[in-house]
Amino acid sequence: MPHPNNSTLSTLYDSDVFRMACRQYDLAAEMIDIPDEALERTKYPKRCLTVIFPIRRDDGVVEMYEGYRVQHHLSLGPTKGGLRFHQSVNIGEVAALAMWMSWKCALVGLPYGGAKGGVKVNPSSLSVHELEGLSRRYMQEMIPFVGTDTDVMAPDVGTNEQVMAWMMDTYSTHIGHSVPAIVTGKPLSIGGSEGRREATGRGTAYFAKSYLNEMGIELSDTTVVIQGFGNVGSEAALGMVEYGAKVIGIGDHTASFFKADGIDIGRALEYAAKNRVLEGFTEAELIPNDQLLELECTVLIPAALERVIDENNASRIKCQVLAEGANGPTTNAADRIIEERGDIEIIPDILCNSGGVVVSYFEWLQDLQSTYWTRGQVLKKLKEILERSRLSVEEERRRLNCSRRMAALTLGIGRVAEAKHARGIFP
């Protein structure tokens, strides 16, 4: 267990979500044999950067924004992780997300460490011109800190393909030639990969389908509720509908909706694309946001922010499968409540939403090699990796007689610790 004299190491990142990630690590580390000299080194982020930078708004006013980047470890290769634009971002949240990305990459066998970035901003309050300025200035501040062999960014909450395009262009302009591998999740026209945009959500749907099949539940009898209707949530919805399930509940931060006989996801996507939010959608019943997670359904997919299922609502969720499309949506206290209930199968985040980073890896490889994979090639390789990872988690679960979350964490953490121990400590 961590030495008490080192307990102050985490104060830099102290926050509810970082403490949650550390507690998960501690529980998993207790179950496997990590050498003492690798225990703390595996847990804490290697380095971080905080920047304050100006953006001139369209009305001429200059505003200052705070941004972060945390690189958790570089023992297996460059770090990899998304960039989040959200008003509640803080460095503790970013550090926790970087930790989870480390375990995720190791779990699915990618040569990456975890990273995460964020800017404290409400992107919906910015014009397109202002969003471009924010994206470019953030990348400009990060240039000494990132690189195709150091740290590769990708989209996350509040960012998208266009943001990645601006950031790739900013980095390339600074370097003096095109560097498509500096970010993933780009448009196809500048080196993006087929299948990348939908990979996280479709991967989440794939895992939900796989476990439903194992449970003997027909997809035609499956109802789905999805909290979060951005890239992950909307693609998960499309995937589940294609499998034959019925999506009866959707919601974002502005509004939530229910329709017992199924929401037309195509119409919801059209509305969200036009209005940027779900608020005002009229083809389903408006319900309070706090009721969405408690709707009775077969599959519940939290696909937005972390810590939305906690000790206050864990006893009231009414699903058979909890498929974590978001990172860290279930708190440690909620995990204990759900485990005591014994009636819900959890597909943990570092497994369930790993499809995105897998296809990001494919995109990075294609850019480095100046080659191109077809959509069929991408999806075939993705399915192979996801299924192999799922089976390895189930094997670890049986071996350790533990929860699926602990099985996924022990695999990811153990592989990172093994790499650190093998490389040793530079004098």
Task: Give an overview of the whole structure.
The chain folds into two domains: 4-177, 3-Layer(aba) Sandwich (Rossmann fold); 197-343, NAD(P)-binding Rossmann-like Domain (Rossmann fold), CATH 3.40.50.720. With 427 residues, the chain is α/β, with parallel strands linked by helices. The longest helix is centred in the C-terminal third of the chain and has 26 residues, at 375-400. It has helices at residues 16-31, 36-43, 91-107, 128-142, 161-175, 196-215, 231-242, 265-275, 289-292, 332-341, 349-352, 355-369, 375-400, 404-423, and strands at residues 47-56, 62-71, 79-86, 113-120, 151-155, 223-227, 246-251, 256-258, 285-287, 299-302, 321-323, 345-347. It has a seven-stranded mixed β-sheet. It has a five-stranded mixed β-sheet with strand order 1-2-4-3-5. It is globular, with a radius of gyration of 21 Å. Strand 6 (223-227), helix 7 and strand 7 (246-251) form a beta-alpha-beta unit. The two termini are 24 Å apart. The protein has 14 helices and twelve strands.
